[in-house]
Specification:
This protein is 51% helix and 10% strand. It has 21 helices and 13 strands. The longest helix has 29 residues, at 189-217. Bound molecules: protoporphyrin IX containing FE. Residues 119, 126, 282-283, 286-287, 290, 351, 353, 431-433, 437, 439-441, 444-445, 482-483 line the site of protoporphyrin IX containing FE. This is Prostacyclin synthase. Its EC number is 4.2.1.152, 5.3.99.4.
């Protein structure tokens, strides 16, 4: 009897939840899905591109879906993105959702602070005037990780998974650059050996965590996975404890400034350490996958590889193509339009962040073509530039194909004019986000990716083990979280060149 009553109550509750919200006049089309409360959460999480493309076909470029009790309005018209990107924080705020994710993924809970102030302060530490010292440190650390590994020195062919090779190289070198080295002298062999071992340990633990992070973000870890996730985090907190970091040499200005910012907020040491892991993810989870996709596209497209190699050899002096890549000046790093186009094209195809805002008050959204929609307080608003502009066939011919010169004009300068509905687009590709959420590490990331690819192409013979190997599909769970990762890896053979 009691069970029946309970079921009845549950049914009423579900019915209330199900029939509780209807579309009001002037609101975007509403699609709640068939399952009460859960709505479209499963399809959304499983493959956001497939799901949102189907919704776009059904409803057009703005619609609201229900997912796990939340109503999310999706806007897919790049001509209207500005309205969202620059709206005041009193109406559309990025921060509440970021705080939810910080807690779910990294157990980080910080006191209230002004995110714009924090961003402005940290931007200085990753851009000029600190960019040149970061770039130089990255160059040293890339060599420590990649060239001075004893297993490389033998000059024998080695087989490895390309994603693993790129992700570990970039994360280890990026970690050493931002979080510091064992000793001050980069050339000290004992210090290099310790840096190699320690950075590998950090990478190995981080990689295990990374396998579970998407599920953690969606609160869908099983009990067993949750236990494993918590234990990996504990190991990483040991490795990144602020006490341990304080003892490292060559710490970046970014690290010291971020730590000071936490101290100023009154955050205790445990929470500071957790924040250090969160930052390892925000600074290191994208550049490695970018190097992977770019190298893979170059290996699969010989004309692109030849063009990038040709430009590299022309740009770098002879000394640099035969040994001393660490001295590449910023001026030279900035003189590679072919490489830049190939990188932009790679990121167009493989960077898929959501740009998310919490709606803090009932408001009206006026789109580029003067359509007006009402948004409700408590809902979420989300842009997904991967569907449009990045993969939009109206903007890019054959958008699914890698064309290394897509972002080049015939005179070799950067192409920036792309159109939709006859109108020139301000946002034609958005791998770095935009507006107040733009990536503050972009310039450092581009320098680092360039240095890493140049190092691979200069020092190594590198080829696909199976030249016919297909470019793998994406791990579709990762849509919305930045750079995509492959569903399966691709094996390469590589060895140090005879110089
Ligand atoms: C290919 C490489 C990279 C890509 C595609 C990328 C992309 C992005 C995107 C899309 C965002 C905005 C996230 C959001 O608002 O939800 C972001 C934020 C951020 N990125 Fe990057 N990023 C890359 C590399 C880096 C690197 C190497 C660093 C630092 C060394 C870095 C530091 C940051 C930081 C600190 C933020 C947060 C900024 C904030 O507080 O809003 N990124 N990145």
């Amino acid at each position: 009897m009691a069970v029946l009553a309970l079921l009845g109550l549950l049914a009423i509750l579900l019915a209330i939840l199900h029939f509780g919200r209807c579309r009001r006049p002037d609101e975007p089309p509403l699609d709640r899905g068939l399952i009460p409360w859960l709505g479209h959460a499963l399809e959304f999480g499983k493959d956001a591109v497939k799901f949102l493309s189907e919704m776009k076909k059904k409803h057009g470029d703005i619609f609201t879906v229900q997912a796990a009790g939340k109503f999310i309005t999706i806007l897919l018209d790049p001509l209207s993105y500005d309205v969202v990107l620059w709206e005041s924080r009193s109406k559309l705020d990025f921060n509440p959702y970021a705080r939810i994710l910080m807690d779910r993924m990294f157990d980080v809970r910080l006191p209230e602070y002004d995110p714009n102030e924090e961003k402005a302060m940290l931007r200085m530490t990753l851009q000029k005037p600190n960019l040149s010292s970061l770039t130089k440190a990255m160059s040293f650390n890339l060599r420590t990780v990649l060239l001075y590994d004893p297993s490389i020195a033998s000059r024998q062919w080695k087989e490895e998974d390309l994603f693993h090779l790129c992700y570990s190289t970039m994360l280890r070198a990026g970690y050493l650059t931002l979080y510091g080295n064992e000793m001050k002298d980069y050339e000290d062999v004992a210090s290099q050996t310790k840096d190699q071992a320690h950075s590998l340990e950090v990478y190995n633990e981080f990689y295990k965590l990374d396998r579970l992070l998407m599920k953690a973000a969606r609160s869908s870890l099983s009990a067993g996975e949750k236990k494993k996730f918590d234990s990996i985090k504990k190991d990483l907190w040991e490795l990144l404890s602020v006490k341990r970091l304080d003892g490292r040499a060559n710490r970046s200005v970014w690290l010291d400034s971020y730590k000071q910012h936490l101290v100023d907020l009154g955050v205790d040491e445990d929470m500071q350490t957790r924040a250090m892991l969160l930052q390892l993810w925000s600074t290191q989870s994208n550049a490695g996958p970018a190097v992977f996709w770019l190298l893979l596209f170059l290996l699969k497209h010989p004309s692109a590889m030849a063009a990038v190699r040709g430009e590299m050899e022309k740009t770098l002096s002879r000394k640099q193509t035969t040994g001393q890549v660490h001295e590449i000046s910023q001026e030279k790093l900035d003189s590679t339009p072919i490489f830049d186009s190939a990188l932009n094209e790679t990121l167009r195809l493989t960077a898929a962040p959501f740009i998310t805002r919490e709606v803090l008050q009932d408001m009206c959204l006026r789109l580029h073509d003067c359509r007006e929609y009402r948004l409700r307080k408590g809902d979420r608003l989300c842009l997904f530039p991967y569907i449009s502009p990045q993969m939009d066939p109206e903007i890019y011919e054959q958008p699914e194909i890698f064309k290394y010169d897509r972002f080049l004009n015939v005179d070799g300068t950067e192409k920036t004019d792309f159109y939709k509905g006859g109108e020139k687009l301000k946002y034609y590709t958005m791998p770095w986000g935009a507006g107040i959420n733009v990536c503050i590490g972009k310039f450092f990331a581009v320098n680092s990716i360039k240095q890493c690819i140049f190092l691979f192409l200069t020092y190594f013979d590198l080829e696909l083990k199976d030249p016919k190997a297909k470019i793998p599909d994406f791990d579709k769970e990762r849509y919305g979280f930045g750079m995509l990762q492959p569903e399966i890896d691709v094996i390469v053979r590589y060895k140090l060149k005879e110089q």
